[in-house]
């Protein structure tokens, strides 16, 4: 480890932006906040654009590490303590000056701040808290801030940070406890899940006391994500529960008993930590006066560093959405940066196509009413590399097709390959005025490239169609193979900007 203390801010910036490029958990802000007199900037749901530079960094955010020094020796991390690389650290004032300077020049619209761990988790978290406090209170910065929670930091620091940041995230890193123990021995499920549960409960507390519901609706969800599963929150002033308990959600990660085994360690750790995370240190009135993490929380999993299959990863993703109310789960194709016997060879190609399929399936879980158990199974644990998950599911379930667009429920239309949320809504609205035809669908902007194989209009298909797996598969494979080639033959590695995580009217069709 080479520690440099005499670097200029520009030299530090070069090192610490490069070190942050492997963290993909940044996206649109997801929060609206108007400008204030005497403050600098504002934030909009669409304010942080989906624009990425060649090496994966979101160019609309100042995306940096506070420090690339770290006490952990995670085998997959370029900043692990055993790597012989130049180390440096910002000061809180330097981060503030960089953020304000870039913002005034219109280079950025917000700050994404992550960090390695200095001497202790609490010491690092205190420095980050000081940075955010100065930005908000001294520099009066009113723009978007996404901050990473340090595993193992005290609940009091996590709570205070939540009133300064727009979004908080803590990386799950790997889907199983076994993988985490093998590649990141300094981290535990408890250190990761305790602040995740605490942020979830803080969001629920803030939403209830501010008088509005900020839960993230998901078509598959039958329970209130914002209030699901945690121990009740207690007021130190009255000793009373501030939120009702919702039974059966802490360990009920899945309707499938088989997939529970993939993430039972989350369940056991969550039982130990939910009560501690549920106690609040700040007065309840703080939750009435300020919004707590208004843009929600997210996490990230590394794809391809450990041998878990897609079904395991998607099952854990589903559990996180249902039980922790996460806004997004990000996937990062492992880019070999270290030589280790427990890791893929440094000459291995990043599994970009696999990452792409996981993002597509993630979208199906959140907004299209699918479950992990429908898309994959223990007998069929990995996605089809030639077809997107929705097309693959449809071909394996042809008994549910064709769908009559003039009568099918909205939820059924969403399951038709090629029909997105926007198209399904247009169909439901338009058919109230009269029967729909294929020509009418085209005029409405419905793309029939894939959907034509799975729908009828007034009982008729667009052309004579054989409802056969081989026939439909061969018809769909050409475009999918070209798309797969584009993904796996990129000149440089970058995070895929697939979806806007707030606006379903994006027109995306899956």
What does this entry look like structurally?
The protein is α/β, with parallel strands linked by helices and 510 residues long. It has three domains: 1-148, no CATH class; 168-383, no CATH class; 389-506, no CATH class. It has helices at 9-18, 92-104, 121-138, 155-162, 177-183, 189-210, 257-260, 264-278, 284-289, 310-324, 352-367, 372-375, 389-396, 410-413, 421-430, 438-443, 469-488; strands at residues 2-3, 61-65, 86-87, 110-114, 144-148, 167-169, 297-303, 328-333, 403-404, 455-456. Mean pLDDT is 79; it is low at 46-55, 215-279 and 491-508.
Keywords:
single chain, 510 residues, alpha/beta, 6-stranded parallel β-sheet, two-stranded parallel sheet, 17 helices, 10 strands, disordered C terminus
Biggest sheet features: 6 strands, parallel
How many β-strands, per DSSP? 10
Distance between the termini: 47 Å
**Helix proportion of residues, in percent?**
25-40%
Instruction: Show unreliable segments.
Output: 46-55, 215-279, 491-508
Strand order of the largest sheet: 2-4-5-6-7-8
Task: Tell me the β content.
Answer: 5-15%
**What Rg do the Cα atoms give?**
24 Å
Helix count? 17
Bulk shape: globular
Estimate the mean pLDDT confidence. Answer: 79
List the helices and strands and how they pair.
Layout (H helix, E strand, L loop, with lengths): L1 E2 L5 H10 L42 E5 L20 E2 L4 H13 L5 E5 L6 H18 L5 E5 L6 H8 L4 E3 L7 H7 L5 H22 L46 H4 L3 H15 L5 H6 L7 E7 L6 H15 L3 E6 L18 H16 L4 H4 L13 H8 L6 E2 L5 H4 L7 H10 L7 H6 L11 E2 L12 H20 L22
Parallel strand pairs: 1-3, 2-4, 4-5, 5-6, 6-7, 7-8, 9-10
Helix pairs in contact: 2-3, 3-4, 4-6, 6-8, 10-11
Organism: Ventrimonas faecis
Keywords: Iron, Iron-sulfur, Metal-binding, S-adenosyl-L-methionine
InterPro entries: Aldolase_TIM, DNA_rSAM_put, Endo/Exo/Phosphatase_dom_1, rSAM, rSAM_sf, RuvA_2-like
């Amino acid at each position: 480890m080479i520690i440099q203390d005499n670097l200029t801010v520009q030299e530090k910036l070069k090192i610490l932006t490069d070190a942050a490029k492997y963290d993909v958990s940044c996206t649109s802000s997801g929060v609206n906040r108007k400008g204030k007199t005497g403050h600098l900037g504002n934030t909009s749901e669409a304010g942080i654009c989906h624009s990425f530079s060649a090496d994966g960094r979101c160019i609309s955010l100042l995306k940096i590490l506070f420090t690339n020094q770290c006490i952990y020796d995670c085998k997959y991390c370029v900043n692990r303590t055993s790597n012989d690389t130049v180390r440096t650290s910002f000061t809180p004032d330097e981060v503030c000056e960089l953020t304000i300077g870039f913002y005034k020049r219109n280079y950025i619209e917000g700050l994404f701040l992550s960090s390695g761990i200095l001497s202790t988790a609490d010491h690092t978290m205190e420095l980050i808290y000081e940075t955010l406090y100065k930005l908000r209170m001294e520099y009066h910065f009113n723009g978007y801030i996404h901050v990473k929670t340090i595993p193992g930091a005290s609940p009091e620091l996590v709570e205070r940070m939540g009133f300064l940041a727009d979004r908080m995230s803590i990386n799950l890193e790997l889907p199983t406890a076994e993988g985490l123990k093998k590649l990141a021995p300094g981290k535990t499920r408890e250190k990761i899940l305790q602040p995740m549960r605490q942020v979830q409960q803080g969001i629920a507390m803030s939403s209830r006391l501010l008088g509005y519901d900020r839960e993230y609706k998901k078509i598959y969800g039958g329970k209130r994500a914002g209030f699901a599963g945690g121990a009740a929150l207690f007021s130190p002033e009255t000793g009373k529960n501030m939120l009702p308990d919702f039974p059966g959600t802490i360990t009920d990660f899945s309707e499938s008993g088989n997939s529970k085994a993939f993430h039972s360690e989350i369940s056991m750790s969550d039982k130990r930590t939910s009560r501690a995370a549920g106690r609040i240190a700040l007065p309840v009135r703080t939750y009435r006066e300020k919004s707590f993490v208004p843009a929600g929380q997210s996490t990230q999993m590394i794809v391809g560093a450990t041998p878990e299959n897609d079904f395991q990863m998607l099952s854990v993703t589903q559990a996180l959405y249902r039980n922790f109310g996460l806004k997004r789960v990000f996937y990062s194709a492992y880019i070999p940066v270290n030589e280790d016997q427990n890791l893929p060879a440094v000459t291995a190609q990043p599994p970009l196509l696999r990452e792409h399929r996981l993002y597509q399936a993630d979208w199906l879980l959140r907004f299209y009413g699918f479950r992990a158990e429908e898309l994959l199974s223990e007998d069929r644990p990995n996605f089809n590399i030639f077809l997107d998950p929705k097309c693959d599911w449809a071909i394996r379930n042809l008994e549910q097709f064709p769908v009559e667009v003039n009568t099918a429920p909205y939820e059924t239309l969403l399951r038709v390959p090629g029909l997105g949320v926007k198209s399904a809504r247009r169909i439901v609205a338009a058919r109230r005025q009269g029967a729909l035809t294929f020509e009418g669908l085209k005029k409405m902007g419905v793309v029939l490239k894939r959907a034509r194989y799975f729908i009828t209009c007034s009982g008729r298909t667009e052309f004579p169609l054989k409802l056969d797996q081989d026939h439909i598969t061969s018809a769909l494979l050409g475009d999918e193979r070209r798309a797969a080639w584009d993904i796996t033959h990129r000149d440089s590695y970058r995070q895929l900007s697939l979806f806007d995580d707030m606006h379903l009217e994006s027109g995306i069709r899956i």
